[in-house]
Amino acid sequence: MSGFDESGFDRLNHRAVARVIGPDDWAAWREIRLRSLLDTPSAYGSTHEQEADYSEELWRSRTGGGSATDLGPGDSGPAVLAFPAGADAASAPIGMGAAFCDRPGWLHVVAMWVDPAWRGRRVSHRILDVIGEWAAPHELRLHLDVTIGNDAAYSSYLSYGFHPTEQTRPLREGSELECVRMALPFPPPAPREARVALRVIDGRCRRAIT
After folding, report:
1. How far apart are alpha carbons 129 and 150 in whole angstroms?
2. What is the C-alpha separation between 139 and 186, in angstroms, rounded?
3. CA-CA distance, 38 to 49, in Å (whole number)?
4. Based on the number of CB atoms within 10 Å of its own CB, is 48 exposed (0-12), middle (13-18) or buried (19 or more)?
5. Please, which contacts does 54-57 make with residues 24 or more away whose CB atoms are closer than 8 Å?
6. In angstroms, rounded to a whole number, what is the distance separating the alpha carbons of residues 132 and 160?
7. Which residues have CB under 8 Å from 96's CB, separation 6+?
8. pLDDT per position as a tens digit, 121-159
9. What are 59-87's pLDDT values in tens digits?
10. Which whole-number Å values give the CA distances from 196 to 11, 12, 126, in the listed order?
11. Residue 71 CA from chain centroid, whole number
12. Could you give the CA distance from residue 143 to residue 131 in angstroms, rounded to a whole number?
């Protein structure tokens, strides 16, 4: 299969970048959110049918929490989009994630999704890095719910550092699917670039000592 997308962009030889967005990015957020609900309906508590009729005002409210400074339960945290590194400003996002404060000391990660063409390239980890960097000064730990049986997502979160808990809940009202809560230790792991650098430095130290 070719590594080039429809625009000719070489996705196999490029990385992704992620950033916190704001209300003016609501249309891009809406587009990728609706794509995610169609692609993986068993991963979310909401549905495409519900969200397709949301107003612009509601979409804007879902992308406006990234500037909050004093968070309490129910307050929105960041909305994050990922893009191909080096792509032009008009490029469509390839991944998404968001978070809100659901109880004191915690930021609940939601709406995680990566375009199928970019899966396996740690795009979700880059999104989680940005959410974690946003949460750190607020001294908030990250947790999330993953549908039991969604092995790819579960494995990705495990490799990032999340650990499963004993908490489970139905995916949504009336659903037979269940989710398991996963939590990230505090402080969260360093971004991937920093983790790789630390491993290299540590390796050099070991060789120097031996």
Report:
1. 21
2. 8
3. 9
4. middle
5. 54/30, 56/26
6. 11
7. 29, 32, 33, 36, 79, 80, 81, 82, 111, 112, 113, 127
8. 999 999 999 999 999 999 999 999 999 999 999 999 999
9. 999 998 766 566 777 788 999 999 999 88
10. 22, 20, 14
11. 19
12. 11
The contacts of residue 152 (CB under 8 Å, 6+ apart) are 119
Say how many C-beta atoms besides its own lie within 10 A of residue 141's C-beta.
Answer: 16
CA separation for the pair 63, 152 (Å, rounded): 27
- Report the half-sphere exposure of 197 (CA within 13 A, side-chain side): 5
Contact assessment for residue 32 and residue 113, using Cβ atoms and an 8 Å cutoff: yes
Backbone angles phi, psi at 64, to 5 degrees: -110, 10
> Could you give the CA distance from residue 132 to residue 63 in angstroms, rounded to a whole number?
17
Q: What is the pTM of this model?
A: 0.82
Structure tokens at 49: 């049918």
Q: Which residues of 124-134 are buried (b: 16+ CB within 10 A; e: fewer)?
A: bbbbbbbbbeb
Q: Which amino acid is at 20?
A: V
**Of the candidates 144, 145, 143, 139, the residue with the CA atom closest to the CA atom of residue 187:** 139
